[in-house]
Amino acid sequence: MIDLIYLTVALPLLGFLFNGTIGAKLKKDKLSGILGSSVIGISFLIVVGAFFETLALPANERLNIVSLFTWLNVAGLDLSFSYQVDQLSLVMSLIVTGVGFVIHVYSIGYMQGDKAVWRFFAYLNLFIFAMMNLVLADNFLVMFLGWEGVGLCSYLLIGFWYDKDFEKSTTAAAGLKAFVVNRIGDFGFLLGMFLIYSTFGTLIFTDVFSRALSFNIPEYIFGLIAIFLFIGATGKSAQIPLYVWLPDAMAGPTPVSALIHAATMVTAGVYMVARCNIIYASAPSIMMVVAVIGVFTAFFAATIGLVQNDIKKVLAYSTVSQLGYMFLALGAGAFSAGIFHVMTHAFFKALLFLGAGSVIHSMHEEQDIRKYGGLKKYMPVTYGTFLVAAVAISGIPPLSGFFSKDEILWFSYVNIGIVFWIIGLITALFTAFYMFRLYFMTFEGKENFDHHKKHPHESPKVMTIPLIVLAILSAVGGFIGIPEIFSGEHGNLFHSWLAPIFKSAQIKLMSYSSHSHTEELLLMIISVLAAASAIWFARYVYLKNPQIATNTSKRFKGVYNFLLNKYFVDEVYDASVVNPIVKSSESFLWKICDNVFIDGLINWLAKQVENISANIKKLQTGVAQSYALVMVVGILIALFWIILSV
Amino acid sequence: MMEQNLLLTYLLVVLVAGSLLLLIFNREKEKLIKYFGLGVSLIVFILSLILYFNFDQQQEGFQFIHKFKWIESLNISYHVGIDGMSLLLIMLTAFITPLTLLSSWNGITKKIKEFTFFMLALELGMIGVFVSLDMFLFYIFWEAMLIPMYFIIGIWGGKRRIYASIKFFIYTMAGSLLMLIAIIWLAVYSSDLLGGFTTNLLELYKTGPTIERSLQGFMFLAFALSFAIKVPLFPFHTWLPDAHVEAPTAGSVILAGVLLKMGTYGFLRFNLPLFPQASIDFAGIISVLAVIGIIYGALVAMVQTDMKKLVAYSSVSHLGFVILGIFALNQEAVQGAVIQMINHGLSTGALFLLVGMIYERTHTRMIADYGGIAKIVPFFSFALLFTSLSSIGLPGLNGFVGEFLILVGSFKSSVLGSWWFTVFAATGVIFAAVYLLWMYKRVVFGTVTNPKMEELTDLNFREKLVLIPIFILIIWIGIYPSTFLNVSDKSSETIIKNVLQPQKMELRIDE
Question: Which of A193, A590, A624 comes nearest B303 by C-beta?
Answer without folding.
Answer: A590
